[in-house]
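Internal tracking record. Fields below are filled automatically when a chain is submitted to the structure queue. Please do not edit lines marked as system-generated. If the sequence contains nonstandard residues, flag them in the REMARKS field before resubmitting.
Queue: standard
Priority: normal
Entity type: single polypeptide chain
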Amino acid sequence: FPDHQKRHAAGSVLASISFLDDLPRPTIVAYPNTIAAVVSGSTLLGLHASEWAADLREVVTGRVLGRALAHEIGHFLLRSRNHSANGLMRANPSVPDLIGRDRQTFFLSADDEKRLAWATTASLQASAQ
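SYSTEM-GENERATED OUTPUT FOLLOWS
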């Protein structure tokens, strides 16, 4: 949880994972200041974040952090830098999707499910040898 993003990261990056060649490294970095900025500029249930109770702000901040981490864990498990057109692995989910209660937009696409099955099978086969 660094205070600031690396200089090469885009301004709206909530979390990141790095790759060495084509393999993801086992470290995920989250950017709490960026997450806080996204949350503080949001509107939920018709109320601007400045009008939310402190408990709601904490819940929404945790939700955004969790979704950002889930996306990066997806890169790790899928062994891929690629993004999907929709679902959990899309590059830029909307702020309403990130802060909202509904989880329906954070699914694995059919292609991502296939890749996960392939990566899991390959990992099991490698460990059995």
